[in-house]
Design brief:
Largest sheet: 31 strands, antiparallel
Strand content: over 45%
Distance between the termini: 31 Å
Number of helices: 1
Structural class: mainly beta
Helix content: under 10%
Shape: globular
Length: 635
């Protein structure tokens, strides 16, 4: 998934918004779940995490050896967690012989304040007789006391075994391959065990037709119920032309004691490129389960280029499952229509219901990691006016989500007008509302914000860029407030930003701002307290490239709060190394105690390291292009 295209992250509110439906299962009933690894900048104590990794190709050190590569590595990690310090150490080896052998093994040890554990993984593959015979195997075992702070998926008590074999044959019909594969997994923490075995043949009949026939067995146990299933599977793919592909498949159970693990189904689909402008894809899968538990999966997509920069695209998808007592479904609709070279419209609809009530053996559940499935429906709409070579641009986006665990509303408007290359007006407006049930009532948070800026640069030079702006913010129960987090808060900020780049090797930036804050703090006893604050802020930063590879950087900030007569500041010198033109790493130390939702950077004081990757050259022909991505940033 690509950020800003498929999803958006709001770090201030801690929300992850997907722009397309995320089904709980794919078309083949494989569970789909999202694992997010995140860090917070506040709300907890600062902790240090460090590690080291080293590896060497031992084959280069030996005088005689039969391997193409013999790589040995070690890994060490130290992490300060709230419960105490965790240590993780590991050693691994990889043996590779081109055309024949690929074997690897890894051993890990973890030490936490309340437990210790070991984990081991071995995998390998052998290719014989010019790849006519292929053998593969893998085994992993994680002790019950093992913990890995960086990979939540490696939970203690997990064991996994995979083996496979393949034999390639040539006959009068064409090339074929016999294969067999077996997987066995045990999740001790959840009490879930599952097995899957599949054996079959893939036969190519000429250059256009391919047939896959297999026999499969499945078994799943959750400590209470045991599901077993034996079935035959068939898939036929026909590619008569380069523009057309048609496939069909089916599954027939031979024996199915217990609950429905993988029921019968029939499916078919096609993809067809009508011409260079239009392509069509569609598929349908009908699941034939006993009783009232049948369901279907349908997906239709069309993409067409209508000329003059116009493109239309849409898809419809229904994915779901059902048990004997509950129904569960995910329904999504996403469309994007581009009219001419200026207008773009997009819509989004999603409905999720009943997923939390389904059995843990249902394919919609994200086994083996159970999670609360919220029942909700969401609707989104967006419109953009981006005419080419025009001095203006407008965009609007709205989202509405109504759920049992979380409900949100979002409306965002943005626009700008370039009077000429040196003068522009920029505007941003946003309304955001979120509500979640909490003990004793509902947790409601609301945010209204507006920003208006005037950008300027001298006519004959682009070295100096100036932005003056006024922003207004009104929040109810703000996530990061200045005076309160339980009540109403209003902030008005006037600021002037200046960025001067006298040469390609140097840059100086500064900001001066003044802020007025008013708040009504709500206490538990029903008393409302009126608060007010005036503050001034000044900040600056510089960059100086010593050569093509090394640069000095620094920034400093000062916030003076007049009502309480307090001063807070921070300063951060840093050194940047650019080993290649597209990559840069910088490290430094931040001093001071400045923490503020409007004027400080995330992270606070202490050592820091940043990485920067530049994939494209950034050119700003107008002052509006220069400031568009910099609105709201600290200098």
């Amino acid at each position: 998934l690509v950020r800003f295209v498929d999803y958006e992250i709001d770090y201030e509110r801690g929300t992850l918004l997907f722009k397309r439906p995320v089904p709980a299962a794919d078309a083949y009933e494989n569970p789909v779940f999202i694992v997010a690894t995140y860090e917070t900048s506040s709300g907890g104590e600062q902790r240090a995490v460090g590690g080291v990794r080293a590896s060497v190709n031992a084959a280069d050190l030996l005088r005689s050896h039969p391997f193409d590569s013999l790589r040995i590595g070690v890994t060490g990690v130290r992490s300060d967690e709230p419960t105490g310090t965790q240590y993780l150490a590991g050693a691994d080896i990889r043996v590779l012989r081109l055309g024949g052998l690929d074997v690897g093994a890894e051993f890990s040890y973890s030490d936490t304040p309340d437990s210790t554990g070991f984990a081991i993984a071995i995998d390998g593959a052998v290719h014989l007789l010019h790849d006519a015979v292929n053998l593969s195997a893998g085994w992993m075992k994680i002790g019950s006391g093992f913990g890995n702070p960086s990979k939540i998926g490696l939970q203690g008590g997990t064991e996994e075994l995979k083996i496979g074999a393949g034999l390639r044959l040539a006959s009068g019909l064409g090339r074929g391959e016999l294969y067999v594969e077996h997987e066995r997994q045990s999740f001790g923490a959840q009490g879930v065990k599952r097995q899957h075995t599949r054996a079959g043949i893939v036969q190519s009949v000429g250059p256009e037709l391919q047939v896959d026939v297999a026999y499969a067995t499945d078994r799943l146990s959750n400590g209470l119920d045991i599901d077993r299933a034996e079935a035959g599977e068939l898939r036929v793919t026909w590619t008569p032309t380069s523009a057309l592909k048609i496939w069909t498949e089916g599954r027939q159970r031979f024996d199915n004691p217990g609950n429905s693990l993988r029921p019968n189904h029939i499916a078919g689909g096609a993809s067809f490129r009508i011409n260079r402008q239009v392509s069509l894809e569609m598929q349908h899968r009908q699941v034939l389960a006993p009783g009232d538990t049948s369901y279907s999966v349908t997906n239709i997509g069309l993409r067409t280029k209508l000329g003059l920069g116009t493109q239309a695209w849409g898809s419809y998808q229904l994915v779901g499952a059902a048990s004997g007592q509950h129904n569960a479904a995910v329904i999504g609709l996403n469309n994007r229509l581009r009219l001419g070279s200026a207008w773009t419209f997009s819509t989004l609809f999603e409905r999720r219901i009943g997923l939390n009530a389904t059995s843990i053996t249902e394919p919609v559940r994200a086994l083996p990691f159970l999670q609360t499935e919220d029942d909700y429906w969401s609707l989104g709409f967006g419109v953009e006016l981006l005419p080419q070579n025009a001095p203006y641009r407008l965009s609007a986006r709205s989202e509405f989500r109504n759920g049992t665990a979380l409900s949100t509303q979002l409306l965002r408007l943005a626009g700008e007008i370039s009077i000429n290359r040196s003068l522009a007006i920029l505007s941003r407006q946003e309304f955001f509302r979120t509500e979640r049930p909490v003990v004793g009532g509902a947790g409601l948070s609301r945010r209204l914000s507006s920003l208006l800026g005037v950008a300027f640069r001298p006519i004959r030079s682009d070295a100096l860029n100036i932005l003056t702006k006024v922003s207004w913010l009104h929040e109810t129960n703000p996530v990061a407030g200045v005076l309160t987090r339980h009540g109403e808060e209003e902030r008005i900020v006037g600021a002037a930003d200046l960025i001067w780049a006298p040469s390609a090797r140097s840059e100086v930036a500064g900001r001066y701002a003044i802020r007025r804050t008013q708040a009504d703090r709500f206490h538990d006893d029903g008393v409302t307290q009126r608060l007010e604050s005036w503050a001034q802020y000044v900040g600056g930063r510089f960059r100086l490239d010593l050569n093509r590879r090394l640069a000095l950087r620094g920034d400093g900030r000062l916030l003076i709060e007049h009502t309480s007569h307090t001063r807070r500041w921070d300063a951060a010198p840093s050194l940047a190394l650019r080993p290649i033109e597209e990559f840069e790493v910088a490290t430094g130390y931040r001093f001071g105690n400045l923490r503020d939702p409007d004027f400080s950077v995330r992270g606070g004081h202490g050592w820091f390291i940043t990485f920067n990757v530049q994939l494209t050259e950034r050119v700003f022909p107008t002052v509006a292009d220069f400031w568009r991505a910099r609105l709201g940033r600290s200098p």
